[in-house]
Amino acid sequence: MGLKKNDVARFKKKLEEMREQLTHTLKGTTAEVKTPDEATGYSQHQADQGTDDFDRTISLEVTTREYNILRQIDRALEKISENTYGICDITGEEIPVARLEAVPYATMTVKAQEQLEKGLI
């Protein structure tokens, strides 16, 4: 059946808002990881240094996850401009609207995503 134009427009707006928010968050997190403030950058105690290193590692992991989501958002916006939004990149099947409501940047059906994550595709 496919998505209606007003649904696609609604998802596009949501994706653009998500992209803007994530970009803003990434700028702050990346700057924080690159240049820690004095409180975290110059620990006097070994335990504090270990905590600082752990915090930076967590920040990097969060940044990586957010960057991956940003890439997925960009792909979803690309699919909107190609008039293929809501169609699975792998199978060509329609992605259920309920999935797009939950994950607007989804470019695969749940089944295709699971197979990809298991290395079956």
Q: Count up the domains.
A: 1
CATH class: Mainly Alpha
Number of strands: 0
Structural class: mainly alpha
Q: Radius of gyration from the CA trace?
A: 19 Å
Largest beta sheet, briefly? Answer: none
What shape does the CA trace take?
A: elongated
What can be said about this structure in brief?
This protein has 121 residues and is mainly alpha-helical.
Please write out the topology:
Elements: H1 5-34, H2 38-41, H3 46-81, H4 97-102, H5 110-117
Report on this model:
The chain has one domain (5-32, 52-118): Four Helix Bundle (Hemerythrin (Met), subunit A) (Up-down Bundle). Helix 1 (5-34) packs antiparallel against helix 3. The radius of gyration is 19 Å and the shape is elongated. It has five helices and no strands. It has helices at residues 5-34, 38-41, 46-81, 97-102, 110-117. The chain has 121 residues and is mainly alpha-helical. Helix content is 69%, strand content 0%.
